[in-house]
Amino acid sequence: EVQLVESGGGLVQPGGSLTLSCVVSGFTFDDYAIGWFRQAPGKEREGVSCSSGEGLIYSPDSLEGRFTMSRNNAKNTVYLQMNSLKPEDTAVYYCAALRTATRWCVLDVPYNYWGQGTQVTISS
Questions:
Q1: Which of 5, 9, 31, 41 is the most exposed place for a label (fewest CB within 10 A)?
Q2: Which helix (H) or strand (E) holds 30?
Q3: Beta strands, E only, 30-103
């Protein structure tokens, strides 16, 4: 059974930091790109960052380098370190898996498997 389980969400003050984790199971981790996505109330889902099976990371410029994704293949886990958080970062954050043989990952394609999401709220 394929599972992606996110954790680490919570309430943080603006300017603070938070690290999300996503543990995956049920498939060969190296064969999949893993992506982080978020969806705020009333907004479309947005790609945050992704890592290819080789560990190459892509993040959109719009995040201004505030978010850093990492991947530990030995632990079947990916992380999203989020710094300088803003109220507009408030959203449910999801990790997702895409079976792909490409060297680089992409965010604007349908992913195969999704986690249940973890709520991140940035508020004073």
A1: 41
A2: none
A3: 32-39, 46-51, 57-58, 67-72, 77-82, 91-99
